[in-house]
Design brief:
Largest sheet: 5 strands, mixed
Radius of gyration: 12 Å
Helix content: 25-40%
Number of domains: 1
CATH topology: Alpha-Beta Plaits
Structural class: alpha+beta
Strand content: 35-45%
Shape: globular
Number of helices: 2
């Protein structure tokens, strides 16, 4: 198994205006992951996250719950993206 993986996530539901991105950043940092999260015009949240496979899967589990005020309806996941070597996790847009 690869020592690092990168996933793309699109999270739908009540995920904007509920500190979802900030909690995503805190979660990713606590797991030692790199990548970014941003709001999308359609009301969803988009994230790319990379790191050790088990840590990335733990982030995916978190994304299904989200921040305390969020109501996640569904999460679309694309696995096996090209790893970019990102070490920091940023909130964008």
């Amino acid at each position: 198994m690869a020592d690092r993986v990168r996933y793309r996530l699109r999270i739908y539901g009540k995920v904007q205006g509920v500190f979802f991105r900030k909690y995503a950043q805190m979660t990713a940092q606590s797991l030692g992951l790199g990548g970014f999260v941003r709001n999308e015009m359609d009301g969803s949240v988009y994230a790319e996250v990379e790191g050790p496979p088990e840590a990335v899967e733990n982030f995916v589990k978190w994304a299904h719950r989200g921040s305390p005020a969020a109501r996640v309806e569904r999460v679309e996941i694309e696995r096996n993206l090209e790893v970019r070597g990102e070490k920091e996790f940023q909130v964008r847009g």
